[in-house]
User: What shape does this take?
Amino acid sequence: MKLSQRLAAVAAYVPPGSTVADIGTDHAYLPVYLVNEGIAPQVIATDVHRKPYESARETVAAYRLQDRISVRLGDGLKTLQPGEAGTIVIAGMGGKNMVQIFRRSPEVLETAGRLILQPMTHVETVRQWLWANGWYLLDEDLVAEDGHLYEILVAARGEETPVDPEIGPRLLEKRHPLLKKLLVEKEKHYLNILEGIKQSTNPETKGKAGQIREKLSKIQRVKQWLAAKQSTR
Ligand SMILES: C[S@@+](CC[C@H](N)C(=O)[O-])C[C@H]1O[C@@H](n2cnc3c(N)ncnc32)[C@H](O)[C@@H]1O
Assistant: This one.
């Protein structure tokens, strides 16, 4: 099973030997990879929609891994018993959806020791939720693929003083090679919003300009800091 670069990066953070739950598995490519590569002895692959669930079942059957991968239909962590998975992977889903999944099943989440998350949107919401709920960021990664930049968060049990949730602290610490690209994307995003606000006649929209300018200048300051660090390397 050859994974996309994004999923391969997610797989790289799975602790060898742990029992994994892949929530929102779709085709079950990740579970098959984890088992075939000897990374995980058992994987639970879940999806809330019937079509991806059936497709996951087909992949698992094609690789004859039914005894190693349990495919389940249902919402989030609801299909798991507490203690069934030490590592929970959620990739390719919106960050707000991930947080809702955690909120709906605290008893399952409580028994997990590691979360590997690849939110498609609202990454800052996920970081904030982790910090407020007894998790710290063990590591973070960025993957560029097919014109997209994906953020990966690896969380473990523990406390961490929250910082600006928009820029990953571990990405900053390791001055990730793709961090500049991420900052440029964010800068463009806020400049576009400001342009939209400028065109708007709605007072409520106009009122948001200050907040957006603040976010933009924070991103620009980090960009400058990174450039200065890189020039002294
Ligand atoms: C874009 S796919 C990502 C598939 C795979 N995880 C990946 O990263 O390539 C998102 C999947 O999440 C599933 N999903 C969305 N909300 C879910 C939930 N609450 N519980 C379980 N699965 C969910 C969708 O049905 C869909 O198959």
The mean pLDDT is 96.
